[in-house]
Amino acid sequence: MTTGVDVSASWTEVVTMDFPIVQRATPGRYLLRGLLACRPCDELLIPSFSSSGRRYYGCPRRRCPRPWIPAEQTEELVWAHVASTYPGAAGDVPAEQRMAVLVAVLTRVSIGVRIADLRYDWRV
After folding, report:
1. Contacts of residue 14, Cβ cutoff 8 Å, sequence gap at least 6
2. CA nearest 6: which of 120, 122, 123?
3. What pTM value is reported for the model?
4. Residues 6+ apart with CB under 8 A from 111
């Protein structure tokens, strides 16, 4: 099952960064690692961070039309959607255990050109 969620009213930040500015991320700090995909390019997004320490997800393809997206806001939106869809399974899960819940219920979350265009592919 795939659903779309429009959160454009609540999320206005768009980030445009060229690939060399960011560094590869260390394991463990990115809730959506391996789940978040770029819909235009059909590639898994790469977790990265800027020199100021802000976390981002970005497409590995340089010419991707979708900009870098802030990790924290994206993770909050996805978690809120999963928690509202599965309130019993995701209700009061501690932050360090959320990735296990996401992997159990999702196969992929894809994002379109617009940041607000999130689609969820659920495990059946």
Report:
1. 67, 115
2. 120
3. 0.76
4. 36, 37, 38, 39, 45, 66, 69, 74, 117, 118, 119
